[in-house]
Specification:
2 domains, 7 helices, alpha+beta, 233 residues, 3-stranded antiparallel β-sheet, 9 strands, elongated
């Protein structure tokens, strides 16, 4: 009777000839990195904090949520974000048009800040994640994956879609007293972008990502390199 085999790895691959250690983010205790199966989490022996997690189908999920996030970002930019109706007048605008209006009405600094932190940086973060996951799904390496990984991880502190979302909610609470407000597809695209970003970036452990990149680069130079983990396909 044929046996069903999963298409994803049970443990992520890493180089056998390298000593793997990880430091606890809270107490700085050093631990040897043990291979764990999907769905399992390693904890610090000193303080009990989470060290790393092997998330199920991490690459597939990160790649899928990354693509979804790009689509939501485009929807947020170009689809109607909000419609206001007051005294017989209607105004419908998208998030992209809002940035342009800010620039034209004398707010260039705010306009540039919104464009960078709400649109440009999230796009680069999602694009970086897609660039990393696409070749790693087949165990290959693209040029420049190390700096791209550093860029993606460095952008996490500068992407402020959540801040923009909270600011929008506060503004809506004030506007609803002055006009009839209708939320458009652009607004819900922003919600989708926020959730997709969190799911994409959090979909793969940093330790796993670096191990996979290291294995892919070494295999490109030495195809028969000794690797542990990354089992049956």
């Amino acid at each position: 009777m044929p046996t069903l085999k999963f298409l994803h790895r049970q443990t992520w691959p890493r180089l056998r000839d390298r000593h793997h250690e990880v430091a606890c983010h809270f107490c700085d205790s050093l631990h040897d990195v043990e291979l764990i199966e999907e769905g399992q989490t390693a904890y610090c022996n000193t303080c009990g904090s989470t060290l790393y997690t092997n998330r199920p189908q991490s690459l597939e999920r990160a790649f899928a949520f990354g693509l979804t996030g790009v689509l939501f970002l485009l929807g947020m930019l170009f689809l109607p974000f909000i419609t206001m109706e007051a005294q017989g007048n209607n105004l419908t605008t998208s998030a992209g048009e809002t940035v342009i209006r800010l620039w034209l009405t004398g707010g260039p600094i705010i306009s540039v800040a919104v464009a960078i932190f709400i649109f440009i940086l999230p796009f680069f973060q999602l694009a970086s994640l897609i660039y990393l996951c696409l070749p790693l799904l087949s165990g290959r390496a693209f040029p420049g994956m190390v700096p791209v990984t550093k860029l993606m991880q460095g952008l996490q502190s500068w992407v402020m879609v959540e801040v923009f979302f909270l600011g929008t909610l506060v503004s809506l609470l004030k506007l609803v007293k002055l006009a009839d407000i209708t939320l458009g597809l652009g607004f819900w695209s922003m919600v989708g972008l926020m959730l997709s970003l969190a799911a994409a970036v959090g979909g793969i452990d940093k330790l796993e990502l670096w191990d996979r990149i290291e294995v892919a680069y070494r295999r490109r130079k030495t195809p028969d390199v000794s690797v542990e983990g990354g089992v049956e396909c």
